[in-house]
Design a protein that fits this description.
- The chain has 478 residues and is of the alpha+beta class.
- It folds into 3 domains: 229 residues, no CATH class; 81 residues, Signal transduction histidine kinase, dimerisation/phosphotransfer (DHp) domain (Helix Hairpins); 147 residues, 2-Layer Sandwich (Heat Shock Protein 90), CATH 3.30.565.
- It is 47% helix and 19% strand.
- It contains 8 helices and 14 strands.
- The strands form 3 sheets. Strands 1, 2, 3, 4, 5, 6 and 7 form a 7-stranded antiparallel beta sheet that branches.
- The chain is rod-shaped and about 155 Å long.
Length: 478
Amino acid sequence: MRRLFGSVRARATLGASLVVALALVAAGAAVLFSLRANLTGQADGRANAAAREVASQLAANRPYADLDLPDGDEAPVQVVDENGRLVAASEDLERISGTGTDAVKPRPATRPTQGDGDGDGEKPEPGETGEIDDETEYTDGSATVDGESGDYRFAAVEVSTQDRGDLTVHAGGSLADEQSAVSTALTSMLIGFPLLLGVVAGVTWLVTRRALRPVAAITAEMSAITASEDLARRVPEPDTHDEIARLARTTNETLTALETSVERQRRFVADASHELRSPIASLRTQLEVGAAHPELLDVDGAVEDTVRLQELAADLLLLARLDAGEKPGGARVDLAAFVREELSQRTRDRVDVHTDLRSVEVVGSRGQLARVLGNLLNNAQRHARSRVTVTTRTDGMWAVLEVSDDGSGVPPNERERIFERFVRLDDARTRDEGGAGLGLAIARDVAARHGGTLVVKEAPSGGALFELRLPGPQSSAE
């Protein structure tokens, strides 16, 4: 049971059925209430009309014996005097309740009226009439007429007469039509509502099944991708514009990004292994030669290979930290003072470094920014003919650091490729000149982690100009 209702289709079907059931119950109750009220109102109207018809005859001083009363099965009638004595009633009336008196046979007058024998008092003068009350009171009751029992709505109308005092006419309107109609409607609802709920549940089940069919296909394909570890596969995208289609497209985009990341990691591991193999092999060869022939040991070459190996390991470690999402620090760094300090520690530059520095602050990791500046300067030193220039300035909310050289520059079609890991331009870089192709990749990654950018342009001298843009302290705070 838990597994059944754990599916979206089952929950959607159950939810839709419950909502429709509640709506049907509310609508059915409203219909029954309205139908009953309407038919009860019609019974009240019939009872009131019958009572006022008899009241009109009493107001006209018609004797009790001459009253024209409706048939008992249509509208049972009682006429009661002010003492509660039944003075007139419908024929064949056998039982009655709800009118205030259960008498069904009129009681004879104790003092017959002269000339008519219908009641107390003097014989009325011709033309005298009684007064009928405008208000009508209604009660629920029942009656048995000629062996037939039923429920009624009784209307009570009061009449004031000269000779017979105050009289009350009770007349009933049958509720048989109301009970029959309500019973028929209720029976129809009890039969129709379950059928309608079944139709709603079935349609909802089929619709959700059809709507969720692409999800099943996506799930199956994702399971196959997980089992095969083939990230080149993609889930099917339905030809719709709904949420499931967007889910499929997003899943494929995620798979593409994951495939790219995994492929990038594979190339990174392969390239790193290749780059590490060269200095390690060179260092081992020199040490083996030195062990056999100490006089032939190239100490300077061994030191150079060791330094190169150390720098490569540091670069790989920094890239690993950046890929793991390491956040930059929150220290404030004055770029002008920062550049001067870093340049003062460089002692092996091949060409002179000129500066044009303006004080501008950024927020970030001083160590990572030092690596960026060092990598840009090393790149410029390898390609410059006679001059390297470092500039700091502001550009709106941005702090800008530029490193340019007067070398051959970077071809436009290679300006993005040089920021890829382990990439060297064939005509510009070799392993003998140092560098594993990680410096510029690290510099761009650090810039991105600091919320900035790193691009290469053409310098005024024709060489390469690397422009690092970092947000100022206010932009970083926002």
